[in-house]
Each structure stands twice: as structure tokens, then as C-alpha cells.
Amino acid sequence: MNKDDTVKLISAEGFEFVIDKKAAMVSQTIRNMLTSPGSFSETQLGQVTFPEISTTILEKICQYFYWSMQYASGKETEFHIEPELTLELMMAANYLHT
Amino acid sequence: MSNPQRKRNFQIEAFKHKVVVDPKYADKTWKILEHAIHEIYNHNASGLSFEELYRNAYNMVLHKYGEKLYTGLVATMTAHLKDISKSIEDAQGGLFLEELNRKWNDHNKALQMIRDILMYMDRTFIQSTRKTPVHELGLILWRDNVIYSSKIRTRLLDTLLELVLRERTGEVINRGLMRNIIKMLMDLGSSVYQEEFEQPFLEVSAEFYKGESQKFIECCDCGEYLKKAERRLNEEMERVTHYLDAKSEAKITNVVEKEMIANHMLALVHMENSGLVNMLLDDKYEDLGRMYNLFRRVSNGLSTVRDVMTSHIREIGKQLVTDPERLKDPVEFVQRLLDEKDKYDKIISSAFNNDKTFQNALNSSFEYFINLNARSPEFISLFVDDKLRKGLKGVSEEDVEVILDKVMMLFRYLQEKDVFEKYYKQHLAKRLLSGKTVSDDAERSLIVKLKTECGYQFTSKLEGMFTDMKTSQDTMQGFYASHPELGEGPTLTVQVLTTGSWPTQPSVTCNLPAEMSALCEKFRSYYLGTHTGRRLSWQTNMGTADIKATFGKGQKHELNVSTYQMCVLMLFNNSDRLSYKEIEQATEIPASDLKRCLQSLACVKGKNVLRKEPMSKDIGEDDAFFVNDKFTSKFYKVKIGTVVAQKESEPEKQETRQRVEEDRKPQIEAAVVRIMKSRRVLDHNNIIMEVTKQLQSRFLANPTEIKKRIESLIERDFLERDNVDRKLYRYLA
């Protein structure tokens, strides 16, 4: 996979998720991080660290990105969320503007 | 996590797993962000982590420090802009704009970065407190601190206007820079653009063009002036596309139009030696086209051009149709009209964009002056006659159509179409009877055109004439088939003409030579035998004859002459010398016709088969005639000048006029009756109006004449006056 097309998301615990830029840009916050003019370190390195998001949640978020793209292209399926994750996931969603 | 539609419905309460206890938390966080903003303005952002900054701003807003964040931002940014403003003020001369532009770009970029990291504030805090969003705030701060800075504001405007002026005077300026600066003003809001640039720009431009147009109008001719005006206009439009707001185009062109064209319109059109009239005279299509395109832009521009053109055409046309020299040659007269029409058609099509209103003006002008001359109908018919007699030889069918179409166009202008019909009938009759028509197709084509123009009624008689010609041919074949013994001796060709279809001529018969009158009698009995109940009368004044003649030295010729001339010549078979009186007695040809026919036999050089004593140009009552034995001609066939269709002499004209007037009476009466039959009751003015309208396609009815006709109808009990209102007429069934 071309490095320019992917982005590395790092959780609080240091787990790395490499996903498509297109998918990551479902989040308005990540989109801004990657497209903002000037050279923030995120743009230069192609990776974003989220010290306040746990691995479990970040994984769920990555899953959501891909599901969301599919949903937008017309494939309507359910996105399952475990009840114990709901609260944290919502806070992360607010943070990521998703 | 949910998709955006659902999310809008519930508010996410700020909740933090880490409860912040540090009272200096807000200050510390703000310090980090403030530092970052400094770094961004100093082009030092590469080490910064977007996520960290975003998270800090996020947390500040989340922990109700939004106000602190916002005011901090305003203060920091203002401070930076004040520095920037200072450095721009310090820029020397030409560098001023460049510095401004560079700083503007920097600010824009920084602003975008700041907005991105403060996005959470934009989304929540600013929305709930209805403050100005970050980006807009950045523009406003820039406007207030930089553009409105007292040392920059006027300097900026002056610089911009000076650059425009320099470009107008032909210098090359940095358009890219110009564009950027103007774009900056537009980005700051259209009111900023208008107040800081557009308004003064338009004022200065108006002043500039006012001066320039004054200068041009004093030293240039009209064509040159228009060229310059056009160039200026294009320049301004180009300027707009290069570096101004597209909305300014209409405004600035308006200024140029007003100052350079509208204010000098009359001076331009009437400019001596180069104004509109001169352009028209000299066929200056390019200048005219330019004038059209420029004047079209200003109100009343085109109507001014049109009015001047109309009065010019009317003047020229009036001179043309009333010039006594022109009246001598009808064909030339009509040709001149056509040429004039062609000229203006071309001008309108190539310079005036085929403008309908101009075409209408042209048409009305032609209608005006063609009808100034009462002889126009006659002349047009003569023109057709000339073309159909000889003018169309060797011309292709399409060209014939073109000429005929042009004639039809002139015909349309005529108000007295019935006069034209009268003459056309006469001329057509002469053409048909003398076998002079060149092209049957062309004749018919014109009839068809007249028919489409004026209806069946107009041409029915003309068509009847063609039918008669055809029937006559058949009749002659039948006649000779039933009289095979006539193979020898003179041949008779009779054309049986229906009375009414043909122009009526006073039927004066002459005495035909014996052998001819015998033949005529035979035909009469044959014809009346096949068609009972008809009456034949001979129209000797309209016929022609081919006779063989042998002259003194034995030279033989075939002479093509009129029937009258034939009668005269046949007399010389029995005698060598005849006096005028003797000829008149023997033939009984009316005196005026006889004189004309003798003149063409004896006085025309090269065709003088008769000799006259005494030799003179005119025929006198005491003259004597001899066969001219010395007659020679290099042709075997000699055509003796027959009386061709000519311009009518004055009494003939009067006569035709009278006949036309006579013919109009029943038409007016018919129109009145038609109208009254459907309306039952109508007042005087309305009748006049409607009758005029109904008859318009044929002639322009004279109101006095209509009144006379109405009175005559009242006398004959078709109408009556209303007892109460004398102006009202009633139809009596």
C-alpha cells in the first residue's frame, strides 16, 4: 500500500493502526490534521497519536470509519457497538468530530 | 458513535475521567496555545503536534475556559497584526503592495492553521455564544488593524488608482499583484471592496474619460473617435477580467459608455465630414458596425442612429424620385431605387447586425419616398417590362428570381398597387401580343409572387391573359386544320382576347388590305361556328405582321412591322407615290397612330423603307411618300421599330389615372357594403378607418372619395343615416 494513501493512528497504549487516509478522513478532526496548511508533525510523519484514546476504542473507531464509508456508498448494514464501550466511544466521537 | 443525523439530537455533556484539580490548568494550557500561535506566525509550525494543540483547545473549551481561549486569541492575533501593519507601513514605495500581499498571504495561512486547531471552539463555544467564527474574526482583525490603519488606508487606495492610471496610459504593471490585492479586498467583504476601491475607482475613471473624450472629440473624426472609444471599452473589460471583481464590469463600462458615448452622442452622429451620414454615403461598414455596437450600449443610442439614418434615406430618396432628370428613364430610375435598397440592406446586414428596427426604418423610408412620386407604379412596371423583354437574356434562373424578388420588394412599398396593376396589365398585354416575352417561366413566377402578395383577385385577370394566349394557339391550329386550302397566301394568326381580362383599348379598326380582310372573315365564321353567342372585334392596333418586300435593285428583305405599318406598306404594292391624305383615307388609321407609324417607316435611319418628301424629321399632313428603292440593310430580316411600351405621355397618364380612379369607386363601395353588412351600424370615422384598412393592400383610399361613395350608397338605399346621430350609418338589408 502506498504510504501517501495511509495514515498511522496510535492509541494511548501505543498500538498502531494503519488505515486508508480516505477512511481516516471520515473524522473531521483527522481530516483537518492531515490537510491543514503549514507542516504540523502529523502531516510530516503521516501518523497521529491519541494519548487519550484507548486501543479498544481506537480499534472500534477504525472499524467505524470503514463501515461509514460503506454506508455512505449505499450499503446499509448495522454497526454493532458493545454497550460497555458506548460512553467512551461517544466522547471520542465528539473529540474526533465524527 | 453514530452517524451525523442522529447525533444532532443529543447534547454530549462534558465529562472528563481525569478531574482537573490544577487551578493553573487553564493558564498553562493557554500558554501552550499562545506559544503555538506565535510559532505559526513566525513560520515555525513544523515541530508542533496538531493533535496536542487540538486536544488542549478541546479540553479548554470542555472545561468552560472557552471565553479565555477566545479573548486570548483576539489579543494575540491583534498584537501580531499590529506588528505586521507596522512592517507594511515601513515598506518603501513600490514594495508597499508586495509587502502587503506577502503579509496577507502569511496571515491567511496562519489563520487557517489557527482555525483548524481551534476547530472545536468554532464548533461549540462560538456557536453557543454567537461570537464571530475564527476565520471571519481573522479577516475582521486584519481589516481593522491593517487595511484601516491610517497610514495604510489612503496609501493603498492611491497606489491602486495610480497603477490603474499608469496602465491606462500604456505602462505595464504587475497585474498578478494587483489581482491579489483586489482579491484581498473582496475577501474582506464586498462592502470593503466597494468602499476602499470600487467607488473611488469609478469616480476617478469618470473624471479620466471625461477629459479624454473631450480631447478626442476635438481632434479626431468620428470613425477614429469610435475606434478609440471601443478600444478603451475593451481595455476596461479586460481589466475587469484580469484583476477586478466581475461585478465591476457593468459599472465601469457604464462609466466609459456614459462619458465617451452618451455625452457625445449627437456631436458624433452629426460630426462634420465624418458623421453618420458620411459613413452611410461612403459605405464604411466597419465604422458603422462600430457605431452600432457602441451606441447600442447607451439608452437612446440606437434610436439616434436610426433617426439620422431614416432622415438621410428619406432625403436621398426624395431627391431621387423627384429629380426630373431621373424621370426620363424609368428603368434607370427603378435601378437606382434597387441599388439604394441594396446599399442599405448591405449596411444593415453587415454593420447593424440585421437589426429589425433598422430594417423597419429602412422600409418605412422607402415607402415614404417611393410614394412621393405618383409615377412610381408605372416605372416599376416599366422596369419589369424592360427586364422581361430583353434584360433577362442569358441570365440564370436564380438571378431572374433575385431580380423579380427585388421588384416585388419595391412593389410592397407602393401604396397604389392598383395603379401598378393597371400598368402591368398594359405592359404584359403588349409583351404577350408582340411575342416579346423572353421567359414564360419568369412571367409566371412574377404573377405567382403578385398572387401571394395581393391575393387571387389581384392576378386573376393577368392569369386570364395567359390562358387566352394558350387557347388562341389551339384555336389557330383548329382553324388551319379545317381550312387546308389556306396553305398558300398570307398567314393569319389570331389571338382571341377575353374582354375584361385585357386592358381595354378604344377599338378603332382600320381598313385591312383586301387579302387580309378576306382571311379575317374566314376566321370569324370559323370561330363563331365553334363558339356560339360570342362577338369578335378586331384590335388592329395591337397586331404585328411579317411581310416580304423586294426593293429596287432586287434586294429582298423580310420586314417585321405592326399591323398599321403593314396596311400602309401594302398600299405601295399598287402605287409608287402616296400622299399623307391618301394613306389616311385608304387605311383609316387614327391620325396620331398613323403619324407615328409613318415616322418609323420613313424617318428612322437604317430602317427607312419609305422615302418622304420633303425630307424632315416630322410627318406633315402634306407630305408625300415613296418606296425607298435605295433601302439596304445587312440583315435579311428587318425589324421596323414598333411602338414599344414607353413612358406614358402626360395626357395618357391623366387618362390612366382617371381610369384607376374610376376602378376604385366600385371597390370602395364593395368594401363599405362588406363592412356595413357585418357591423350593421357604424359611425363615419370608423367606416373610413376600416375601409382604408381593407383596401390598403391595393391602394390608399382617399377619405373624401370614401365619403362620396357612402353618399352614393345612401342615395341607392344601401345605407341610411341615423335619425338622431347624423354621424351614424345603418345598413339597409
TrEMBL record, chain A:
Alphabetically ordered keywords of this record: Nucleus
Annotated GO biological process: jasmonic acid mediated signaling pathway; protein ubiquitination; ubiquitin-dependent protein catabolic process
GO CC, alphabetical: nucleus
Subcellular location(s) of the protein: Nucleus
Classification via InterPro entries: ELC1, SKP1-like, SKP1/BTB/POZ_sf, Skp1_comp_POZ
All copies of domain SKP1 component POZ, residue ranges: 6-66
Pathway membership: Protein modification; protein ubiquitination
SMART domains: Skp1
One protein family per Pfam: Skp1_POZ
Domain of life from the UniProt record: Eukaryota
UniProt KW Nucleotide-binding keyword: no
Family: Belongs to the SKP1 family.
Name the UniProt record assigns to this protein: Elongin-C
Gene source species: Rhodamnia argentea
Automatic annotation (TrEMBL), chain B:
One Pfam family per UniProt: Cullin
Taxonomic superkingdom: Eukaryota
GO process annotations (BP): ubiquitin-dependent protein catabolic process
InterPro entries reported for this sequence: Cullin, Cullin-like_AB, Cullin_homology, Cullin_homology_sf, Cullin_N, Cullin_neddylation_domain, Cullin_repeat-like_dom_sf, WH-like_DNA-bd_sf
Gene Ontology molecular function, alphabetical: ubiquitin protein ligase binding
Keyword Transmembrane helix recorded: no
PROSITE patterns, per database record: CULLIN_2 (PS50069)
Coiled coil: none
Keywords: Isopeptide bond, Ubl conjugation, Ubl conjugation pathway
Span of domain Cullin family profile: 375-602
Family assignment from sequence similarity: Belongs to the cullin family.
Protein name per its UniProtKB record: Cullin-3A isoform X1
Organism name: Rhodamnia argentea
